[in-house]
Amino acid sequence: MIEFIKSGTQFDFVGKFKYTTIISLVLVLASLYFAVTKMKYGVDFRGGAEIQIKFDKSITLDELRTMLDKKGFSGATVQTIGEDDTNEYLVKVLGSEENINQITHQISDALTTSFENQGPTVRKVDMVGPKAGAELRMSGFLAMFWAMLAIMIYVGLRFDFRYSPGAIIALFHDVSLVLGYFALTGTEFTLQIVAAILAVIGYSVNDTVIVYDRVREHEEKYTGLPLATHINNATNETLSRTILTSGATLFVTITMMILGGLAIRDFFIAMTIGIVVGTYSSVFIAAPITLSLDRVMKKK
C-alpha cells in the first residue's frame, strides 16, 4: 500500500496555532471588507434579464460583446453554453422594474439584426425584478446561516458543545474567504456560487468532524494528557487521510474548472478555494478555538 505520509509523524500543529490564527484573522477581516464594499452581485440578486440565444453559424464571444457595447449595453455579460460547436450563448443584462422588458426586447432585436447572416434564434428569456433579486440574495445568505446553525447543533450533540464554536468559526472562516475572493476579483456573485458555498460548508464540517472524532478517541483512551497533545496526535494520525481525500477532490474540481466551460467555472472555482481553506481550517481554526475554550473553562 502506498503511503504519501508515513505513519507515526509528529508534526507540532499546536505550536503553529499562534501564527496561523493571526494570518487567518487578517484574511477574514480583509475578505469581509471586500465582500461588503466591492461585491459584484449578478442578475440573480440585483434584477435583470438572461437571454439564451443560439446561432446557426459560428460566432465568437468577442464579436457578441463588441456588438452589445456598440448598442449601449456595456454592462451586459456574455458566456457560452455547452460545447463550442453548438454556438449557444447566454446574455445577462441588469435592469429595473420599469425598463427590464424594454431592455430585453432591445437586446433581442439588436442580436437579430446585427447577426442576421448567422441565423440567431432567441430560445429563452428569464427576467428577475430588483425586488425579487434582493429577496433571493437574502434567502441565499439565510441558507448559509441556517446550515451553519444546524451544523453547530449537530456537532454539539455528536461530541460536546465545547467543540461547536470551533466548527462554526472554521465554517465562517471558509465562507468569508470564498466571498472575499469573488469580491476582490470582481467576479459576479450568483446563485450557483451560493450552491457551491453550501457544498463547501458540508465538505469542511466533514473534515472537522474526522479530526474531532479522533481527538475524542484519544481523550477516552489516554486520560490525563492535555488536550493540546490529543489534538497533535489526532491531526497527525488523520493527516494521510486528509491529504488523500482533499487531493482527490481537488483533482476533480480543478479539472472541471479548467475544462468544464464558462457556465460552471465559477462554481468550481468556489469549490476549489473552499476545499483548500476547508482542509486548512479543520486543523488551524477549529482545533485552536476548541483548545482556547478548554483552557478558559479549566481556569474558571
N→C terminal distance: 48 Å
> What are the secondary-structure elements, in order, as H or E?
HHEHEEHEHHHHHH
Helix content: 55-70%
User: What would you say the CATH architecture of the largest domain is?
Assistant: Up-down Bundle
Mean pLDDT: 80
CATH homolog superfamily of the largest domain: Multidrug efflux transporter AcrB transmembrane domain
Q: How many structural domains can be distinguished in the coordinates?
A: 2
**CATH class placement of the largest domain:** Mainly Alpha
Radius of gyration: 24 Å
CATH topology category name of the largest domain:
Multidrug efflux transporter AcrB transmembrane fold
Question: pLDDT under 50 segments (min length 5)?
Answer: none
* Structural class category: alpha+beta
Strand line-up in the sheet with most strands: 2-3-1-4
Largest sheet: 4 strands, antiparallel
Number of helices: 10
Strand content: 5-15%
Please tag this protein with its features.
alpha+beta; 4-stranded antiparallel sheet; 2 domains; Alpha-Beta Plaits
